[in-house]
Amino acid sequence: MSTVQQPDPRDRPARLTVGVVGAGRVGPALAASLELAGHRPVAVSGVSDASRRRAALLLPDVPVVPPAEVLRRAELVLLTVPDDTLPGLVTGLAETGAVRPGQLLVHTSGRYGAKVLDPALRAGALPLALHPAMTFTGTPVDVQRLAGCSFGVTAPGELRLAAEALVIEMGGEPEWIAEENRPLYHAALALGANHLVTLVAQAMELLRTAGVEAPDRMLGPLLGAALDNALRSGDAALTGPVARGDAGTVAAHIAQLREHAPATVAGYLAMARATADRALAHGLLKPELAEDLLGVLADGADRTDGTHGTEGAAG
User: Fold this and answer.
1) Rounded to an integer, what distance in angstroms lies between the CA atom of residue 132 and that of residue 129?
2) Which of 106, 175, 267, 282 could serve as 128's disulfide partner, Cβ 3.0–4.6 Å?
3) Ranges for the Putative oxidoreductase/dehydrogenase Rossmann-like domain (predicted)?
C-alpha cells in the first residue's frame, strides 16, 4: 500500500475559470497545464507581439484582453510578470477595484512569498505563491516539463492544501517555502540554473576557439555526468585540477583565458577559489598543495583587479 499522502478530495479546487496576466513564457504554459486538469482558461493579457504569439500557441481561442478584464472573467488568476513589476501590478489592480472577493490570485515569482499580494488580500482575494523551479521556452514542451517539476509554495496556512493541490494538478511536486526564506530559495535556484547557462555557453565558446567542431556533443555527456554526480554526492563529486591542487595547470588555464577570452577570467577565478575552499573543507584538496594553488588564484585576482600588470577590471 502506498504511504504517499494524497490531497483530500474536499481540498481539491473546483473546476475554475483561469486568467493569465502577463503572457510571458510561464503563464500560458501553466494555464495550458491547468486546462489539461479540467480547468478552463478564459482570458489572457499580453502587450508584445511575442506575448500574443505565445498565447495563441498555447492557449488557442482564448481572448487577449486588458489585465482588469482578465480579473473580471476569471476565478483563478495567474500573475506571471517580472519580479520587479509584481508589487506595482498588485497594488494597481487592488486600488482600481479589479480584485474580487474570493478570487484566487496566484503569482509565480520566486523572489516573493504571499505577502506581496497583501493589497489583494485586503480586497478579499485568496493569495498563493506558486513558483515552478523550471526554465521555460514559451513552447508546448514547457507543459510536458512540468511533470515532476518542483514548485516553491507559499500561502496562508488555511490555503496551503489548496495551493499544493493546484501544483499537483499541474503535474508538479509542491515544496513548502516559508515566507522569510523566499529570497534565499530564489538565490539558490538562480545560482544553480542561471549561472549554469552562462558557464556552459562560455565553455562552448572556448571549445570552438580551440578548434572543436561540435562543442555541444563533447560537453553533453561530460556535463550530464557531472550534474548527476553532484546531485548524488555533493562535494564528493569534485574532480579536476583545482580539487587535485594542480597549481601549474590552473596557472596555464588563466594565461590562456587572458589571451583568448579575457572576459571569462574573473568568473574562472571566482569559481576556482570557491571550488578550492570546498575541496579543502571536505578533505579532497591536500593542504600542502593548497598553498601554491591559492597563490596562483590570488595573483590572478590581483592582475584582474589591475593591481599588477596592465589589464584593468574593464579590460
Assistant:
1) 10
2) 106
3) 12-132
| pLDDT digit string, tens, across residues 60-92 | 999 999 999 999 999 999 999 999 999 999 999
Residue 41 CB neighbour total at 10 angstroms: 28
State the CB neighbour count (10 A cutoff) for residue 21: 26
**Banded model confidence at residue 303, pLDDT cuts 50, 70, 90:** confident
Whether 269 shows a pLDDT value over 60: the answer reads yes
| 3-state DSSP percent of the chain in helix, strand and coil, to 5 | 55, 10, 30
- The rounded distance, in Å, linking the Cα atoms of 261 and 285 is 27
Backbone phi and psi for residue 174, each to the nearest 5 degrees, phi listed first: -75, 135
Burial-class residue 278 by CB neighbours within 10 Å (0-12, 13-18, 19+). middle
Distance CA 26, CA 139 (A): 10
What DSSP state is assigned to residue 151?
E
Please count the other Cβ atoms lying within 10 Å of the Cβ belonging to residue 45.
24
List C-alpha distances in Å: 111 to 84, 87, 92, 178. Answer: 9, 11, 20, 12
**H or E stretch at 76:** strand 76-79
Q: How do 104-107 and 40-45 pair as beta strands? A: unpaired
Cell numbers at residue 46, please? 499580453
Can you tell me the distance from the alpha carbon of 274 to that of 268, in angstroms, rounded to the nearest whole number? 10
Instruction: Decide: 83 and 110 in contact? Cβ < 8 Å.
Output: yes
The 3-class secondary structure across 248-269, one letter per residue, is HHHHHHHHHHHHHCHHHHHHHH
Residue 194: DSSP 8-state: I
The 10s digit of each residue's pLDDT in 202-256 is: 999 999 999 999 999 999 999 999 999 999 999 999 999 999 999 999 999 999 9
Which strand (E) or helix (H) includes residue 118? helix 118-122
**CB of 146 within 8 A of CB of 132?**
yes
Query: CA–CA separation, 72 vs 66, rounded Å?
Result: 10
Count of residues for the chain? Answer: 315
